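Suppose a colleague, Dr. K., hands you the sequence of a protein chain of 347 amino acids and asks what its three-dimensional shape might be. Before reaching for any lab equipment, you can write down a predicted structure in token form. Begin with the sequence itself:
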Amino acid sequence: MAENIPELPNSAQLAFEENWSPGKIDPGRWYALRKQWGQNNNGVVPENVSLVKAKVDGTDRFVLECRAHGDQYDGPVTGLWNKKARVGGVLVTKQSFASGRFQVRMRIGSPSNPTPAGTVPAIWTYGYRVVKVDPSISDNFTKSSPLYHPYLQQWGKGIAFYWSEIDFPEFGKNGSFTTPMFNTFLNKQHDSRTFDIHGSADGQWHTYTTDWHTELIPLPNVTDAQVTEAEGFFWVQDKSIPYESYWGNPLKRNGKDDYSVYSGKVAKHWVDGKFVGENTKFVPSMTGQLNLGIWLPKWAGPAPWKEAKVHFADVTIWQFNEPGDVRGILTEDIGDSFDENGTPIAP
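The predicted structure, expressed as tokens, is then:
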């Protein structure tokens, strides 16, 4: 069923605007990644991110350009291990955002090459945090590290990973640009849906709008003895509380032995004002930074060309300030994983 984009809620506040009019990328607002992004590609690099002049609604103006190297690229820019092919570019906001409306104008390819198969152009929010404890105590909660959760272990014993992400959308799986993925990531849980985006991967400008909502959900039968307070929130410390009742999210204390869980509710998506679908499963509640860019994972398929581009014209973000928002927990910038010579940086 079609849905019009609703009026902004009364709680909405304009939080971020960018139209690139100064002609330069403000390092106080944005940073470009030099990072391995997924597997079976050679990462993303700042050299593939810049501002260029383009025509938008009949006017020449600055826009953001993110470039991708295909399998035949032979230019000077290199990525991981100094490899030339399969290197992309991603720009990220310094600011983190919770529930709100995210509106981005994007142009994929060009009229002569509207769908650069082998690439993944995308708009997404992303936030993460690693919490480590001694491996000898890794299968239990510990008062010395209240945010550590044994069910969130990744990459080895004693390494817990918090993850918040919404993709709106992520194009290019298996070279397809007609029904891109709209993904949600809530810590170790993940859900992927595909929707028809009305043919918008056509080399023309289109407006992508996503409304992300959060809520508080009562969590009965949790006592004060089963949680601990840290960094402004309450964290489960008892395996007898069903993990699927809170999925690693923090809790709010309403009173003695009375708690609610901070929860993502829904992410609704529109393209050029036309409703395309919604995510209702594993929607995050913790903040994420907005990412804009293009990359080349193996699952995008072969890229039998030299170079492709994706452009971004305008970014506007309103914050809804809803009860389920978790601010201040996922605040780190995404760190580089290799240096300018393509050598991996030790974690």
